[in-house]
Amino acid sequence: GENVEQHPSTLSVQEGDSAVIKCTYSDSASNYFPWYKQELGKGPQLIIDIRSNVGEKKDQRIAVTLNKTAKHFSLHITETQPEDSAVYFCAASRNDYKLSFGAGTTVTVRA
Amino acid sequence: GAGVSQSPSNKVTEKGKDVELRCDPISGHTALYWYRQSLGQGLEFLIYFQGNSAPDKSGLPSDRFSAERTGGSVSTLTIQRTQQEDSAVYLCASSPDRGITYEQYFGPGTRLTVT
Question: pLDDT digits over B77-86, tens only?
Answer without folding.
Answer: 999 999 999 9
